Amino acid sequence: MTAGPDRPSVLVNLLWCVPGAVGGSEEYLVRQLYGLTQQPAPQWNPTVAMAKGLKAAHPSLADRLPIKEAPFSSEHRARRILGESTWLRRLERGAALVHHGGGTAPFTTRRPYVLTLHDLQFLTYPDYFSRLKRAYLSTVIPRSVRRAAVVAVPTEFVRDSVIDEYGADPAAVMVVPNGIEPAVSTDVTPPNVLRGRYDLGSGPIVVYPAVTHPHKNHAFLLKLLAGPWSDPDLRLVLCGGVGAAEGDVAATSDPRVRRIGRVPDADRNGLLAMADAMVFPSRYEGFGAPLVEAMALGAPVVCSDAACIPEVVGDAAVVRPLRLDAWADALVDVRERRDELVTAGHLRAAGFTSEVSGAALAAVYERAVGL
After folding, report:
1. CATH code for position 305
2. H or E stretch including 318?
């Protein structure tokens, strides 16, 4: 995106986004910004204030937009909050708009500002959060929502939650969907390489790409393996970082489980592309980007009916309540309907691109400044 003095400037605050530590919300914001640069007639000059290390994690973003990398680490909340009130506040001078991407805004921030709120999971599942973090979010999020010109959310589910919980003006809460990059379908490791690299055998595989956070519900899949999913040739491939529920996975003695941790994007894409199914038993999502990525890669999806998940997949997935009996025949179902589900998945995923996401973000900025 070329600079232009006739286009208003926006400072995007990604200081909260510690590389590899915040799950899908990291990709959500990065892809929106990619999409903003893809608009046919760009109306904004964004500058991105990044947490230390994020530039190295997303070098192509630095090729597209001006980057200001913080001189301090954001791994500790208190240090990041201090940095937002000092270093970031200086950067805000001269910006027509500030965009806070992490669900909270500093009390001293310049206005008007846009607030991206990914979800309200801390209200639905408070036990998944420490007492200190619950207290912080319960205090700062409502204030941030009240003072925001526009609140951007990933789904109608989150939009309704924000309006109902905080009494927000419906006109000031706007959906900016997640977007996937075209490379997700082309940067793919071949199946024969993956079977050897991760000891997958020659049988069917199902893949769950998720950090082992409690709400991701990995234990549900392990119970299925111990019960109705008894095929000895089946492999359950779990990829993603370590979360608070890692012990559920570590405790299993089932030799069919492959816990492979974080893997290169090409391997992750390849695993999805070759899978009998991408399984997604999550209890809560604000969006659930792996759902769209799997559909784009031709993996049939079996998912829960929780939160926003049915909204995201539409009629392009096998959606079941989180009961073992409801999932017992799910793999049989997807094998019988594979062609139908793959076709529907491709069509569904085509509506979730970074360009679409960027256009929605541009509309949010325009609403925020009254254009």
Report:
1. 3.40.50.2000
2. strand 318-320
Round to whole Å and give the CA distance between 239 and 347. Answer: 26
Is residue 108 assigned to a domain?
yes
pLDDT of residue 23: 58
Same domain, 147 and 212: no
Measured at the alpha carbon of residue 248, what is the angle toward residues 316 and 333, in degrees to the nearest 5? Answer: 25
Whether 160 and 211 share a structural domain: no
Q: How far apart are CA 47 and CA 64, in angstroms?
A: 10
User: Do 64 and 200 fall within a single domain?
Assistant: no
Same domain, yes or no: 186 and 210: yes
Domain region containing 263: 182-349
**Predicted pLDDT of residue 64:** 86
Q: How confident is the model at residue 24 (pLDDT cuts 50, 70, 90)?
A: low
Q: Cis peptide leading into 112, omega within 30 of 0?
A: yes
Structure tokens at 166: 């905080």
Strand partners, 319: 303
**Residues 89, 45: Cα–Cα separation, whole Å:** 18
- Helices 156-166 and 131-147 meet at what angle, rounded to 10? 90
pLDDT tens for each residue of 274-318 = 999 999 999 999 999 999 999 999 999 999 999 999 999 999 999
- Per-residue pLDDT tens for 217-244? 999 999 999 999 999 999 999 999 999 9
Q: How many domains does the chain have?
A: 2
Q: Facing residues of 279 across strands?
A: 302
Do 238 and 359 share a domain, yes or no?
A: no
Share of the chain above pLDDT 90, in %: 75
The pTM (predicted TM-score) of the whole model is 0.91
Contact in structure between 301 and 316 (CB atoms under 8 Å): yes
Average pLDDT, the chain: 92
DSSP state of 243: -
From residue 230, alpha-carbon distances to 102, 156, 254, 331 in Å are 42, 38, 11, 11
Residue 357 C-alpha from the chain's centroid: 13
Residue 243 and residue 210: Cα distance in Å, rounded?
9
First to last CA, the chain: 20
